[in-house]
Amino acid sequence: MLNSLYTIKQILLINLLLIAVFLLINVSLYSQISPGDLSEAHAHLEGMSNCTECHTLGEKVSNDKCLACHKLLKNRIDSNKGYHSSDDIAGKECIVCHSDHHGRKFEMIRFDKNEFDHSKTGYELLGVHKKQECEKCHTKEFITNDEVKKKDYTYLGLRTDCISCHVDYHQKTLSSDCSSCHDFNSFKPTTKFNHDITKFRLIGKHQNVECVKCHKISTLNGNKFQEFANIPFESCTSCHKDIHDNKFGPNCTQCHDEQSFHVISSMDAFDHNKTRFKLEAKHQFVDCKKCHKTKLTDPVKHNRCTDCHKDYHESQFAKPGKVSDCSDCHSTQGFVGSSFTIERHDKTEFPLSGAHLATPCFVCHKKDTKWNFKIAGGSCIDCHDNIHEQFIDQKYYPDASCKSCHNENQWANVVFDHVKTEYELLGEHKNQSCRACHFKPVGDGRYEQRFSTLNNDCTNCHTDKHFNQFENNGVTNCFACHDYNNWKANKFDHNKTRFVLDGKHQYVACAACHKKQQIGQDTYVLYKLNKLKCENCH
Q1: Sorting pLDDT into bands at 50, 70 and 90, what band is 335?
Q2: Rounded distance, CA 155 to CA 168, Å?
Q3: Mean pLDDT of the 449-460 span
Q4: What's the CA gap between 503 and 509, in Å, rounded?
Q5: Cα separations (Å) of 299 from 148, 251, 304, 349, 383?
Q6: Of 308, 311, 304, nearest to 292 (Cα)?
Q7: pLDDT score recorded for residue 35
């Protein structure tokens, strides 16, 4: 058993030695035949058994064998595409440009990049493309063919459409033919784009509008995006705000054109009554520019009259929490005249009554050149002069209220309780007007008021026809003979004088003793006789 195992080991060892010898001999032979190591790209073809992969026995390298491996290149040549189909290369042997056996690091694809005519590839480099390094475009990032993408180094596999290298900024919303709008110098501006060949031709002011005004920039799918397709343009309101809120319909061109919205192309068809401000009465005859002072399309404040008209009354009617306007009293028929009624006046702080009802407004509210409706308080002296100031004691008319004596129906009808003073009116005094005693004529139609300065002496009002005959200590007491009912001396008793009437004297007429006297133009009866003896008369 041991001998058998030993025999097997010997056989195996002999076989291994034979294999090693064969290999050494084969390598030596190949080294003598091969001109050198293959490049890294062809390194897997090393060995005598692989020579026929590229070489035909007894002949040089065959193009057919090259293209049998490089199938993608063969397809392009068969399709008459690419550099290898150009006039300079077509028909040449591959080995002329791509020889091998020069070592592992040998570059089989080599040429002067600066002198290379890229137009022979079927894709001419224009504009900015001319300035790019080859590696900027010929990179795996832009290769879409999976077989080609496996290669470590290749100039194949690129497409000629822009979006194969560049990000499709328009995200498939526009044609993939970028060159229909852009050139090769810069993506902006789009020198080849002509808006007139689109469905929306730019006319008038639209020609000066920045693109971004209509073609908004946003974010789509996480990328910056500018919308050029599917923008509505069927009517002006697709882009422009209808400041008229569709009152005139969606067709703005009825009045406007593309030259300017601020220019009205036709006013004949314009109906102002469809606006928020209907033209009535005098407004119908106002020139448009009186209200639309800048542009006809500029918004005009119109909710209140004072938006256009000056507040003639200068906010006299302004009240907290209440907005007043001219239309409260006036109409579009004109500012002259007022719709402010007596009923409305009665709701103010000063209701109209009596003679005030017949008083024209201007008497109280236009005492000078301007109307004044902001009359302070409700006192009489706010409108009327206090002619009694400094003449009548305030205790008889507190707060200078005229109503203490007068009323609103008739100013001359005075009601005053004279008992409140120190002089009660009796007899004929009751029938006298206040003016008779308290207004003394001083000439030229003027009067002197006498109230607090008037005392109780009769001679303050009445003429002393007796020429001071009965004066006592500067005061004449008329009541010694007269009363308040008439001027007759009903109270006179001759027997209480220094000369008592008795006998026949009782029947003697007064004038027999009391003769008339003349002083200048005045005459009076002499009652004070100092001669009382009989011989003075008899």
Answers
A1: confident
A2: 23
A3: 88
A4: 13
A5: 67, 19, 14, 40, 45
A6: 308
A7: 82
**Cα distance between the two ends of the chain:** 225
Q: Are strands 217-220 and 223-226 parallel, antiparallel or unpaired?
A: antiparallel
Classify residue 428 by its DSSP letter: G
pLDDT confidence bin for 377, thresholds 50/70/90: low
Mean pLDDT over each residue of the chain, to the nearest integer = 86
CB 420 within 8 A of CB 396: yes
In the predicted structure, residue 29 carries a pLDDT above the cut 50? no
Q: What confidence score (pLDDT) does residue 127 get?
A: 94
Query: Under a CB-based contact definition with an 8 Å cutoff, are residues 72 and 156 in contact?
Result: yes
Tokens of 79: 């399709």
pLDDT for position 85: 94
Q: Is 202 helix (H, G, I), strand (E, B) or coil?
A: coil
**pTM given for the model:** 0.46
Tokens of 464: 């002393």
Cα 443 to chain center, whole Å?
69
Which tokens belong to 107?
A: 């570059």
Question: With contact defined as beta carbons under 8 Å apart, do 451 and 438 qualify?
Answer: yes
209-218 — which CB contacts under 8 Å span 24+ positions? 214/239
Residue 35: is the preceding peptide bond cis (ω within 30°)? no
Residue keyed to tokens 């920045």: 210
8-state DSSP, 524:
E
Name the residue among 327, 285, 296, 295 with its Cα closest to residue 309: 327
3-state secondary structure of 250: coil
Q: Please state, in angstroms and as integers, the Cα–Cα distance from residue 240 to each residue in 38, 233, 244, 254, 295, following that order.
A: 72, 10, 11, 15, 17
Burial 398-411 (b: 16+ CB within 10 A, else e): eeeebeebbeeeee
124 has pLDDT over 70: yes
pLDDT value of residue 150:
86
